[in-house]
Amino acid sequence: MIKVFIEKIESKILTKLFTRWVDKEYDVELLEMTSSVITKRVVELKTFVDMCTRVEIKGFKRDV
Questions:
Q1: Which pTM does this prediction carry?
Q2: What is the CB neighbour count within 10 angstroms for residue 62?
């Protein structure tokens, strides 16, 4: 219970710090790299969700 509470607080603090860092950063290459890493992670997570929520259509499968 305490571990979950600490993880939530840590997440909020890190999010706030990251937002401040982005607001203060002026290096375009670094921001683009950060953006690409975040985009890769979002694509991974969407792929996992799509694989888990995939509905198999029965009736069109052929066993030869």
A1: 0.69
A2: 4
CA distances from 30 to 19, 22, 36, 64 (A): 14, 10, 10, 54
Following DSSP, what letter does each residue of 1-64 receive, concatenated?
-HHHHHHHHHHHHHHHHHHHHHHH---HHHHHHHHHHHHHHHHHHHHHHHHHSPPPPTTS----
Residue type, 63: D
Q: What is the mean pLDDT of each run of 10 residues along the chain (64 residues)?
A: 93 96 96 96 94 77 64
Rounded Cα–Cα distance for residues 3 and 14 (Å): 16
Residue 47 to residue 39: CA distance in whole angstroms: 12
